[in-house]
Amino acid sequence: MNLQFVVDGFLTGAMIGLGAIGVTLTYSVLRFANFAHGEFLAWGAYATLVIAGLIGAAAGGDIASLGPFSFGWPVLVAGVAAMVLTGLLALALDAVLFRILRARGNAIVMVMASFGASMALRSLLEFIFTGAPAYFSRDIQIAIPLGAGIRVTPDQLLVLGLAVVLVAGMYLVMTRTTIGRAMRAVSENPTLSTVVGVDVERVIRATWLLGGALACAGGIMLGITVQIRPYMGFDLLLPLFAAAILGGIGSMPGAVVGGLIVGLAESAAVPLFGAGFRGAVAFLLLIAVLIVRPTGLFGMRE
């Protein structure tokens, strides 16, 4: 039996899971669904592309690939810088839009505003870079056979490794740092957190920064393994929310597991039912789980 869909599912699930962490953090801390989150993936990928191009131009334009990978070291350096910039973009969006609406205490208005922000960010990206796909590298890689019909490229192995490192790092931030514990406290009870001295505004800023940075990482991974397009974040938006809800809103491990489940379900649907059913199978699975456990796999009943 060809198990290639398992590798493809883990790759897709890793990218979805990273983005879903930002979705679940935003929802649990700020209490609204941010539909502009998908655009952070696209902006992060394009920021990486631009910065890597500038570094390459400054270095003379003749940069060899990094070991067996299809890209050179400028992409890694640019990726770190782009994660910071995407976090700042998310923070800026909060400052000019969501903070004002948050003060009015209307979550529905914030959700609708996030729709508008999503369309504005996506249209601006398409205006600047056009709708043509872009790539970090056009080098062709030879896949490595692993047996059972599974073949992977060095780029795919790197993406999986980076996803594990980022998820582990995020787990340590949430469990071993002061700001992580404060974010968990605010997600549980914002009013009580304020009473005991937690700086809620600082927590909100950290949430936007971390969510934007992780979305950027997911966009970079998608750009490395597939391609970069203005609509790449929009195409992943529904799977991001499906993963966050499936895992349980507010649960970071749940977002990761939900992302892997959605990714595997989508990949398994292709050989079983055809590419046209790829998205439908994931959401049928989501509905089935929510019927049995409405709080999601890792969610807690309030």
Protein architecture, described:
The chain is mostly helical. The protein contains eleven helices and two strands; from the N terminus they run ααααββααααααα.
Describe the secondary structure blueprint for this structure.
Blueprint: H1 4-30, H2 37-58, H3 73-104, H4 107-129, E1 144-147, E2 150-152, H5 154-176, H6 178-188, H7 190-195, H8 200-225, H9 232-247, H10 252-273, H11 278-292
Q: How much strand? A: under 5%
Mean pLDDT comes to: 86
Rounded radius of gyration (Å): 19 Å
Helix and strand pattern: HHHHEEHHHHHHH
Write a compact overview of the structure shown.
With 302 residues, the protein is mainly α. It has helices at residues 4-30, 37-58, 73-104, 107-129, 154-176, 178-188, 190-195, 200-225, 232-247, 252-273, 278-292, and strands at residues 144-147, 150-152. It has a single domain, classed as Orthogonal Bundle (ABC transporter involved in vitamin B12 uptake, BtuC).
Features:
mainly alpha, two-stranded antiparallel ribbon, single chain, 302 residues, 11 helices, ABC transporter involved in vitamin B12 uptake, BtuC
